[in-house]
Amino acid sequence: MANNDKNLNITINNPRDEERVVLSFSTLSKRLKRYFLVWVVAAVVAVVAAFGYSGFTTRVNKEPLNALISFSYSGIERGLDPNGMKFDVNIIKSPSVIESALTELNLDPIHLEGIRRSITFEGQRPKDAIDRLTIYDSVLSKNGNIEAAEKILETSYHPTQFKVFFDYNGLGLEDEEAVAVFNEILNNFTDYFYDQYGYNENLGSAVEAISYTDYDYAEAIDVFSNSINTLRRYVQDLAQTDQTRFRSTVTGYTFDDLYSALNTVKSIDLDMISSYVVINNLTKNKEETLAYYEYRIKSLVRERDSLEEELKAYEEAIAAYEKDQVIVFGGAEETNTQTSIASAQYDKMFTQKNNVAVSLASVKQSINYYKDRQQSLKSDTKANNNMKTKVEEDLAALDAKIKGLVQLVYDTSEDYYRNVTFKNAYNVLVPATNTSSDVFARFIKNAIMPLAILEIGCLFVYFAVAVVQALIIDNRKVKKLALANGDDDDDIADESDDEVKEETKTEKKSNDKKKK
Length: 516
Description:
Among the domains are: 65-199 and 429-434, no CATH class; 207-421, no CATH class. The protein is built from 14 helices and 8 strands. The chain has helices at 25-60, 95-104, 112-118, 127-143, 146-154, 175-197, 201-209, 217-241, 255-279, 286-320, 344-378, 385-421, 436-484, 498-515, and strands at residues 9-13, 20-24, 65-71, 119-123, 161-166, 324-328, 337-341, 426-430.
């Protein structure tokens, strides 16, 4: 039977020395088949090595946890906090927030500083800022518009969403502990946010910080009066901003209810004690109390003079202020009318003038009040121990009542900020996770690159060895054939090669099998 094998040879001519390099695809195919099993074994070893490396790196070099948070309140779009100051998202990793999270999870506070340094943020660019920049860039690239370039420079954005990353490598935390700590920090910031921007705890602390027992009776009454006035102003401001007439589900009060309660305490409880002290000239030290009255009168007189000058300035400004002229067009020319309207600036000045007038009236009343006290105390006192005991008991009861009102104001305003003002001000949109699927995904991700490198390397070596072997065998055959034909070539070696002999034997056996 004739041999039907067809060989396709590639001959490469070297123009420098006219030598020929021959490569037969038949020989190459046989070399590839010969080393195929070796390549498969190497590929399997590469897979094992890549996944072993991935398992090690996944375990040792842990992927940072990530979460997504958002802020939604008036001012955040301009990069401001609820108080109108510059907002810094790093407030989330405040030591008090992290310490609270560690305490709740019963973890050692020694991790606090390491955790704080390991938390980073990445602001998410708002879509409207991207759209503006895209439009301006398009105009600039097409027309070279200078105005567009200026707009690009002026366009700024303030993120309202942030990606939060927690790299817990080297902190000694297990995966589950790291996830728990990270999420606890993000959740605890909710309370910190309300405490920071909601009810002013410094207000309550200031009201309760001063002990009335350190003062004489008249001075103690002034201390209580200042505390009540401070609370009233705070509650009144909240009542004016509240458009829903919020009633707390915690206390059952509205801000108007609290304001009325504070007015009642001031006009009845405090005034009753004050009148009792004044009528009976009760004092622990008459000379010190008279000196105190004198100081208060002089201080209030200076305040009165300042307010009178301020009021006069407002009145003169309002009188000289020109209102905006508005012409209303009718159906005919003779029916046109002209009128004056007040602008926002005029309204603002008028409001400020009224506020000054109210303050001035209050100061004048206080001056008269202290003068009456001073005049009454200069006469003989009727005070006795029973009267002093009664006043002290009444002051203690008033102190307890005011502290109760402070707590009611705190609870009501806290409920208001949480459920109305800052209901959606801060949210954890996507909490951190570290499930089995997450770990497996990281394991596969870490294995892809080394696996690709090793497999490509094995494939390259496999083909390179096969090509080199095929070139050697084919070119030695050519040289032997040249010797057999009697070519004189000093560069042709006489010795036979083991690879050529083996290849010749293999071809002979193959041909014998085909003939049989």
